[in-house]
């Protein structure tokens, strides 16, 4: 992801490296803009051929039909508002609310399902067009940058929905029989948390469910805080949560087709539609199968467990609620909110039977690796960053290989295997903290200095 660059006065007086970076950025932006419609059209063709809703159909519903999500369009608009003045924000919000009320009222009168989300999508589009045609300079640049982020958030959800169907089409067999053996090394946390959530009652379940499905809302709150100075200063921070979210969403789902897993509530629970190993989750642990094999599964349950992207995204929210890029500590309510969102998300992913414990470990390692690659880009790709990212990639790769090919030994020697898995996660977390937090704000490692090449 390439940020829109602030004009550098030095670029106009013969600063060749700066001009070259600007040109390269423009090239990458142009390629990205061209790639988005191509990707959407390609996925739409696949969707039509396979008989499920494609991204263009879903996007059209946001404009003229019943939106698939009520919160994502509004989250996209709120993200776009960080790049415009308060006066324009009030106008945009008022217009979005009015359009949403009218559209929802028309649908109700016609006997169609209730839904919200048309207003923010329409206003977001209008805002981008208005900024492009009527504004100039920093005002235009900020507005288009923010509108692009809001649009990317909405489009990413459309692409993600189609990708889940792709995982089903391409991977008819799943690896849950291997993963549950590896999960014995962590004490079968999904079974434990499933019973805990059941015991806590419907009120706690409702809160956890809301936290789980409204993760974009938490991300937008954090991003709005990080980008609060964009309009008054005209400058964007070098790194913020949206960049991590989008990169995780790009890389993480690729692993779904490499390591297809559906989760305990499907493979070992009552929601397996007759293809489950047995109705074990969450009451009874299945016996250890020393001859695991890929398990054939249905044609509609997404293979989206490994790694746990909810864990990766929630951990990124937590990390970005510690302090902003200048070193300023986040307000108390935001820091506590980030911690609550992470803990509640972890509880929900396990307690609802959506994930195994080893999925969460893989998701956490993925998050720390991606965040290490993106964080503080002004420090360049020195030796420490390269080693940290390589360390994270090696750990994630080793975990996936172990879950698949060492699952039986992991179940037979759970204390040793569990200690190794948790030690690897702890080592990655400690290295991440030492690199990005422990030395803040002073940096003494010359290897982290930006390269001059």
Structural descriptors:
mainly alpha; disordered C terminus; two-stranded antiparallel ribbon; 453 residues; single chain; 2 domains; globular
Characterise the protein shown here.
Helix 5 (118-134) packs across helix 6. The model is unreliable at 1-14 and 440-453 (pLDDT under 50). The radius of gyration is 23 Å and the shape is globular. The longest helix is centred in the first third of the chain and has 35 residues, at 16-50. The chain has 453 residues and is mostly helical. The protein contains 19 helices and 2 strands. It folds into 2 domains: 1-170, no CATH class; 173-453, no CATH class. It has a two-stranded antiparallel ribbon with strand order 1-2.
Q: Could you tell me the radius of gyration in angstroms? A: 23 Å
How many discrete structural domains?
Answer: 2
Helical residue percent?
A: 55-70%
Give the number of DSSP strands: 2
Strand percentage lies at under 5%
Main sheet summary: 2 strands, antiparallel
Poorly predicted regions: 1-14, 440-453
Count of runs of 4 or more consecutive helical residues? 19
Strand order of the largest sheet: 1-2
C-alpha geometry: globular
| Overall average pLDDT | 86
Order of helices and strands: HHHHHHEHHHHHHHEHHHHHH
Structural class: mainly alpha
Alpha carbon gap, first and last residue: 21 Å
Strand and helix map with partners:
Layout: H1 16-50, H2 55-64, H3 71-81, H4 86-109, H5 118-134, H6 137-170, E1 173-174, H7 176-183, H8 189-200, H9 202-213, H10 215-226, H11 230-233, H12 241-258, H13 264-267, E2 295-296, H14 309-320, H15 332-351, H16 357-374, H17 383-405, H18 407-412, H19 414-436
Helix pairs in contact: 1-6, 2-5, 2-6, 3-5, 3-6, 3-10, 4-5, 5-6, 6-12, 7-17, 8-15, 9-15, 10-14, 12-14, 12-16, 14-15, 14-16, 16-17, 16-19, 17-19
